[in-house]
Amino acid sequence: MSQMIYEGKAKRVWSTADSEQIRVEFKNSLTAFNAQKKGEFEGKGAINCEITALIFDYLRFHGIESHLLQKLSSNELLCQKLSMIPLEVVVRNVLAGSTAKKFGLPEGKPLPRPLLELFYKDDALQDPFVNVEQVVILGYATEDDVQKVSKLAIEVNALLVSLFAKIGIQLVDFKLEFGRTKDGQVVLADEITPDGCRLWDKTTNEKLDKDRFRRDLGKIEESYVDVLNRLKKELSK
């Protein structure tokens, strides 16, 4: 019998009959500001599930492995069970959000090269920013792990910048998570969706991501659907 292993803000993780596999269920919930702001819309889980499956399949085609095994239903993925590396890896191509605010710089400033930032994944601590020395010395990951996830993050960024450009979207920034397979391979995990990316229309600069919820901009569902439809059209060619 399947048992819930973990429930997060946007997903539930369930056991399966195979001890090396998990079922990931995408929820309809929306959260922001460390879950201080909450909302939802019908069908969000299915939209994010399909976006993640499309992007992970695209990345696998280009040599980037992930935990995804197959899509089970409209809002569920079958995935490898991983030993998660407790880091969020954020890649920024354009200055926006908390980093723009921290340095008192305007949003929308293109960066000369991708900026990679590490955060220790701990909701109770609000996912604090960490440097490589802190990660290694405090034992959250090895130096080799950090090098691997950093290299993979930059490779994923290059592929996704190109993909989104083809559908008229600027990939401003996004977060990634990684884990180790049972044989020690570091692979991409979690999800890639408008929840964890900043996506701006290249023509209008209209936000097509969770900032619409954070900033009360409206048209949240429409923006998520727009991203999905553009991806489906491009990746079905």
Walk me through the topology.
Elements (H helix, E strand, L loop, with lengths): L3 E4 L3 E5 L5 E6 L2 E4 L4 E4 L3 H18 L6 E6 L2 E5 L2 E2 L2 E8 L2 H6 L7 E11 L8 E2 L1 H6 L5 H24 L2 E12 L5 E4 L7 E5 L9 H4 L5 H16 L2
Helix pairs in contact: 1-6
Report on the structure:
31% of the residues lie in helices and 33% in strands. It has helices spanning 44-61, 97-102, 132-137, 143-166, 211-214, 220-235; strands spanning 4-7, 11-15, 21-26, 29-32, 37-40, 68-73, 76-80, 83-84, 87-94, 110-120, 129-130, 169-180, 186-189, 197-201. The mean pLDDT is 96. The chain is an alpha+beta fold. The chain contains six helices and 14 strands. It starts with a strand and ends with a helix.
- How much helix, percentage-wise, in residues? 25-40%
- What's the β-strand tally? 14
Largest sheet: 7 strands, antiparallel
- What is the CATH architecture descriptor of the largest domain? 2-Layer Sandwich
Spans of at least 5 consecutive residues whose pLDDT stays below 50 are none
How large is the radius of gyration? 17 Å
CATH class of the largest domain: Alpha Beta
Q: How is the CATH topology of the largest domain named?
A: D-amino Acid Aminotransferase, Chain A, domain 1
The amount of beta strand, in percent, is 25-35%
Principal-axis shape: globular
Mean pLDDT, rounded to whole units? 96
Helices, by number, come to 6
Provide the domain count. Answer: 2
Structural class: alpha+beta
SSE order, as H and E? EEEEEHEEEEHEEHHEEEHH
Query: End-to-end distance, in Å?
Result: 40 Å
In CATH terms, the superfamily of the largest domain is ATP-grasp fold, B domain
